[in-house]
Amino acid sequence: MPIRRKLFEGLSWRLEARAAASPPQTGDRIRGCAGRMMGLARAHDCLPDIEQQAAILCFHGITERPDPEVEDNVLSLRNFRRLLDVLRRSFRVIGLAELVACINERRSPPPKSIVVTFDDGYACCHEIAAGEMALRRMPWSVFLPANLIETGGRQWLDDVRVLIHRGERKRISLHWDGRAVEFDLSTPERRSAAVKQIIETCRYLPESQRRPRFEELLSLFSEDEIAFVRDQYPSFAPMTWQQARELKLAGVDVGSHGLSHIALAPQTPDFIRHELATARDLLQQRIGHHSPHFSYPYGRPAAMSPETETVIRDMGYHCGLTLEQEIVRCQACNLMALPRLIVSAQVGRVLFGLWQRFL
After folding, report:
1. d(CA 322, CA 336)
2. Residues 23 and 53 grouped into a single domain
3. Quick one: 273 and 171 in the same domain?
4. Which of 93, 163, 238, 334 fits as disulfide partner to 138, beta carbons 3.0 to 4.6 Å?
5. What is the distance of C-alpha 171 from the center of its chain?
6. What average pLDDT does this structure show over 351-356?
């Protein structure tokens, strides 16, 4: 083993042991500092060339200066560039189609392969990410919730974040299952707790139950206030079909993220088929193409099921992407449920995680 790799390996495992024994926030800070240090020291250059594995990264939004309370999955442009530069220098960025072909043909992808994907179809993918990826000649995929692109609508999770954190109300009451649920919004910590509870309670409900809960929340704010707080966060704005067409013409893999960005598993089989077929047809109509790759909304086990995998396969998709936090082990993976690593706003943690997984 090269001496340099041995030194970084020993250091990384000691830091991981310290992080694991610390409170969660402290552990995240330790991993973040370690990852930033390793990026500056070019530690990833000395990772071993292990065959039959790759990592699929899942990005969401990019903006100049994210609001950490509201845009917790949004990278700053500076951190996005920093991460891409490490990927270009120390890894091999390949397209999703190449990885799927390697798996189907039982051959190894190039050592240290990375696939870059973006979920949710935000306009910043066109306005910011496309230029940065093109500058580095990196292939990538973007997955669109087709009806939100069609209507220009915002995702309900993003609306929850901006309304709770930046709306004027200091307390709200919502009526769930016949009982009133009170939320104190008087401090940043309590607002964050409210956002987490609302999203996690509603995320995996059947649509017939989730939608009324969200509409009740919207009804507590005026249309002017909703429009105002949305305008403060352009990173959550959806792209247009024209932007999607331009990405496709530039060689970007533009795929489906469902129709309405809802968890599929809790829905009825007919609802699932309608959701996916309508999204596929809308992509075909609006950009003249639909990718053979699919990204599950939410991507967690509660959002998927064997039935959803069957529908995806029957519709002719070559793969389905989840948000299970693992690398792809090509000889023992399910193409209809490929894992991805979420790219958080803390790029140091991402770099530390890549080191640990490729070691």
Report:
1. 9
2. yes
3. no
4. 93
5. 30
6. 93
| CB distance 289 to 254 below 8 Å | yes
> Do 325 and 7 form a contact (C-beta atoms < 8 A)?
no
Same domain, 308 and 344: yes
- CA 50 to CA 113: how far, in whole Å? 10
- Helices (H), ranges, the chain: 3-20, 24-40, 77-90, 96-104, 123-124, 130-135, 146-151, 156-166, 188-202, 207-219, 223-231, 241-249, 269-287, 306-314, 347-358
**Calpha distance 183→175 (Å, rounded):** 11
How many folded domains does the chain comprise?
Answer: 2
Which tens digits make up the pLDDT trace of 171-207?
999 998 888 999 999 999 999 999 999 999 999 988 8
Domain range spanning residue 263? 3-152+238-358
Q: 92 with 199, same domain?
A: no
pLDDT tens digits for range 75-99 = 999 999 999 999 999 999 999 999 9
Give the max Cα distance, the chain.
64
The dihedral through the CA atoms of 9, 14, 20, 26 has a sign that is negative
**Whether 102 and 246 share a structural domain:** yes
